[in-house]
Amino acid sequence: MNKKFLYLTKVSLRKKVKSKWFVITNIILAVAIILLLNINSLITFFGGDFDSKTNIIVIDNNTDSYDLFKQNIKTYAKDLNSSEDDLKITVKETDKSKKEVKNNLRDEDILVELNDSDKEYLTAVITSNKKIDTLTYQVLQTSLNATKTSLGMTINNIDPNILSSISAPVSITRVALNEDNNVDENMSLIMGSVFPTVILPFFMLTLFLIQMVGGEICEEKTTRSMEIIISNVSPKQHLLSKILASNIFVIFQGLLLIIYAVIGFLISTNMLSSGLSLPSDVTSIYDSLVTTGFIDKLIYVIPLTLILIVLSFIAYSIVAGILASMTVNIEDFNQLQTPLVLLSLGGYYLAIMAGMFNGSFLIRILSYVPFLSSFVSPSLYMMGEIGIIDIIISIIVLIIFIYIILHFGIKVYKVGILNYSNEKIWSKFFKAFKSKDI
What we know:
Elements: H1 2-17, H2 20-37, H3 39-45, E1 54-61, H4 66-78, E2 89-93, H5 98-103, E3 109-117, E4 121-128, H6 134-155, H7 160-167, H8 187-193, H9 195-222, H10 225-230, H11 235-273, H12 280-291, H13 294-324, H14 330-336, H15 338-352, H16 361-366, H17 373-382, H18 388-416, H19 425-434
Parallel strand pairs: 1-2, 1-3
Antiparallel strand pairs: 3-4
């Protein structure tokens, strides 16, 4: 019987891996992931201005503030880059007229006119051919405000040290009495931008697994090949073979996604060594991840998360297989799989919005719930809402849940797998559950 079980598993797995759909899909995924991880190089290759410098041309209309403005630009622009050599903003003053400069203004040029004002000390007019990106405009705005403040202090004979002390931000010492649940206040922002990207592949693989298990069982029932299969192996072995083959395939697909990402990262690293640079938004997020201890926490959470993911795959596939056994066509299964899809979707959104439930007892309880725990628990741990013990509890609860649904679900599967009646699906399900025919 073990040979038959392994044969069924191999046949099911071979059918998935050797399909043209699998090859084409993975080619598309590989290309898409590698291109996304090298978007900066892609932009440059197609003639984009990803690495081009922004030239700020200044016309100083009797304010004598050009040197101060230029120094402020360098100061604030440097905060957005690793070193002064990486600055993508250049500043130069011109003696040309405003009309002449406008007529020769290029896409990478920005014209800044510094004008004197009796009431406001300094006003400015910014002219460009196209929209100015947010970071560059922020540097311009901050630099102009700083220049205006310095001019105002000079005109009114205000001691710069006194004004600096007054306007300086308050010094805050952060004390957390419970260090186990301590989390940097910036973690919510990071979780909102980074974590959805990390868990999206798991969410998509879960949906794919549900559809794959149910679709294959429905296909065998529709073609009546199920009768031949069940005459040679037990329903239990049949179900377990589908679960094993589908989970191996999904895990294999997940590993392929990781390989594609690694290849893309290696290509990106080679590009960086050739002189290209990452967008400042990316480097800023990475620096925040390091500062908040996100990277350090990954060392502990990744193994436990992988266990949760594998166990969740098994739970989803068991339920999907049991529900599919009660159907006679794919349309019926599409109705039955809706609750599973909604559960996984709910877990995905709960993981994204975990920061909104800060300190909530409800979200902590949901982190123990099967189907949801694989999404919610890692998210809450990264935010400091739960600890390692809570994730271990989620794993134990999920193992118990898998044992229960497999123990009682086999009874439903045995009755439903050869049931081709047109009776209502849920009616057949409950009758099979109550049946003593094992």
